[in-house]
Write a structure and sequence with these properties.
Blueprint (H helix, E strand, L loop, with lengths): L4 E5 L3 H13 L5 E5 L2 H14 L5 E4 L8 H10 L8 E5 L4 H10 L3 E4 L4 H18 L5
Parallel strand pairs: 1-2, 1-3, 3-4, 4-5
Pfam families: Response_reg (PF00072)
Keywords: Phosphoprotein
Organism: Nemorincola caseinilytica
Length: about 140
């Protein structure tokens, strides 16, 4: 797949900048759409459903205002229109109970945000390649 639609739900402006920079640095031409909270995420998904242009992947932060990532994950995975979209939790939270709850709710993967930009590039590249290139046929 040449160009994927990837939604990043992240309220921190610096983290959004770093994610965009990591994708750019990797040379991907994917369409990145950023939302700042779970309300914007679910609204965007409804809009994309009407357009017939569903995201190929969602990177979801847990700690956001209005509707946090936990609530958004639950809603996405319970909705037949959205439940097959891979949702990768991308959070600073590394609590084992939190990670287990996310998997129980339907998260496809859970990644703790790295400390360096180099690690971020490697992680996002791996996630993108797996969920877009390798696993896209399973969606």
């Amino acid at each position: 797949m040449d160009k994927a639609l990837i939604v990043i739900a992240e309220d921190d402006v610096d983290d959004r900048f770093l994610v965009k920079a990591a994708f750019d640095e990797s040379g991907y031409t994917d369409t990145l759409v950023f939302v700042e909270n779970g309300v914007e995420l679910t609204d965007l998904l409804q809009k994309k459903l009407k357009e017939g242009n569903m995201p190929h992947l969602i990177l979801l932060d847990l700690n956001m205002p209005k509707k946090d990532g936990r609530e958004a994950l639950r809603e996405i995975k319970q909705d037949p229109a959205f439940c097959k979209i891979p949702v990768i939790i991308f959070s600073t939270t590394n609590n084992i109970q939190e990670i287990a709850r996310c998997y129980e709710t339907g998260a496809n993967s859970y990644i703790t945000k790295p400390n360096s930009f180099e690690q971020l590039i490697n992680i996002l590249s791996t996630v993108r390649n797996y969920w877009i290139e390798i696993n896209s046929s399973a969606i």
